[in-house]
Amino acid sequence: MAEERRKRATEAFFGRRHGKRLRPRQDAALAALLDRALIKLDVASHDVAALFPSPVERIRLEIGFGGGEHLLSELARYPHTGFIGVEPFVNGMAKLASAVDEQGGAPANLRVYNDDATALLDWLPEASIAEVDLLYPDPWPKKKHWKRRFVNRANLDRFSRVLKPGGRFRFASDIDTYIDWTLLHCEAHPAFRWEAESADDWHTPYAGWPGTRYEAKAIREGRTPAYLTFLRV
Description:
Elements: H1 2-11, H2 24-37, E1 58-63, H3 69-77, E2 81-86, H4 90-102, E3 110-113, H5 117-123, E4 129-135, H6 153-162, E5 163-173, H7 176-187, E6 192-194, H8 213-220, E7 226-232
Parallel strand pairs: 1-2, 1-4, 2-3, 4-5
Antiparallel strand pairs: 5-7, 6-7
């Protein structure tokens, strides 16, 4: 176990864990969300659907949900889908917590995880997830940091294990080098096929896309977002 923790510490796909100090109301909302919806990896994961108190038709995973704009939108659009949101940045999780608190508390179809996504991926049963979303991940733009990008062969192996056949991996970014990086890595992986059919496909936002603050910043600064979808074959 110690060796496994040491190994994971070297992966370091995310940066800082804390931002500004939370206000008391944010603290309370965060505590309530984690008390109700936090996934704990010290229990067996034979049936992920059992994490949700009501039956769900399928389960989706969003890694690094930031402020939760997309996750909140999808929760409302698909009430019969179970969603697992991963965000190690405390202030991002607190922002989601405050939003669901204003709506009366965490919806029944939401579960969260506040640590390294690779640990969760290794815990999940095989072929248990219908879709994995990785939207505007940290691009680690300096070449010396590219090894910290979440898209790599090991994590694509993890995705391919937990995704159902016919499931999808969706990736959005405004950083050209990371977009090219992801296309090359997915093209080289036998479990994934890019779904684009025309040159415009990858610049067309996903259906129901609400936009995010990161995306708005990118557009203001003149960067063009790309929306990639890969099929688990």
